[in-house]
């Protein structure tokens, strides 16, 4: 099973501690082993296959935000601790900039999470935001300015619970949306919007 970067850093301490703890206190050893197993599961990084057309979800989870911002539409996805936390490119394009914005660490499902620490990735075709939650304080982008990505490519991950947004181009409106708040989505596989003039594999 492929794992996201950082898995060893978080998983090894409880897994190593499980051995001596099992001798001293079997329940504590089992707890440490379970914790290490949870961390490994959390950092899993499965392969994904994008559909032929459409803007794909940047994250696993449920749609928590659908709103208009001027002439653009934002779709936010809340990731539970049980979801895969590797983020993927909603569309093919070139990375124009990465902007780190310090902020609070409110629960990622709350309205106040818009003020949380985040990394905004501006592509030439859309924008994607990686937003930290109350417990997740480690945002790890995989891309740099100038990188070219295909739709569904890995672009980063956030450790332990968070939110990811895609800000659609101004040519999209609510009529182009394929999801609503509360819908489950999968990163790189679920199409969240489709424009009538959009070519395949874009």
Automatic annotation (TrEMBL):
Domain of life: Archaea
Coiled coil: none
GO MF entry, a single one: carboxy-lyase activity
Protein name: Protein sorting system archaetidylserine decarboxylase
Record keywords: Cell membrane, Decarboxylase, Lipid biosynthesis, Lipid metabolism, Lyase, Membrane, Phospholipid biosynthesis, Phospholipid metabolism, Pyruvate, Transmembrane, Transmembrane helix, Zymogen
Pfam family, one: PS_Dcarbxylase
Residue spans crossing the bilayer: 15-43
Native source species: Haloplanus litoreus
Key word Lyase present: yes
Biological processes annotated in GO: phospholipid biosynthetic process
């Amino acid at each position: 099973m492929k794992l996201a970067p950082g898995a060893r850093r978080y998983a090894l301490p409880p897994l190593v501690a499980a051995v001596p703890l099992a001798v001293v206190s079997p329940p504590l050893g089992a707890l440490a082993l379970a914790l290490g197993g949870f961390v490994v599961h959390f950092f899993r990084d499965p392969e994904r296959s994008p559909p032929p057309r459409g803007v794909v979800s940047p994250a696993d989870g449920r749609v928590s935000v659908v709103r208009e911002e001027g002439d653009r539409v934002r779709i936010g996805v809340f990731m539970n601790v049980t979801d895969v936390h590797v983020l993927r490119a909603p569309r093919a394009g070139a990375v124009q900039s990465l902007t780190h914005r310090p902020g609070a660490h409110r629960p990622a499902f709350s309205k106040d999470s818009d003020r949380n620490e985040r990394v905004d990735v501006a592509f030439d075709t859309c924008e994607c935001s990686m937003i930290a939650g109350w417990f997740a304080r480690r945002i790890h982008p995989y891309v740099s300015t100038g990188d070219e990505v295909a739709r569904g490519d890995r672009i980063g991950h956030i450790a332990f619970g968070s939110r990811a947004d895609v800000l659609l181009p101004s040519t999209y409106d609510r009529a182009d949306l394929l999801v609503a708040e509360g819908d489950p989505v999968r990163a790189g596989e679920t199409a969240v919007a489709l424009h009538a003039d959009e070519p395949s594999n874009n």
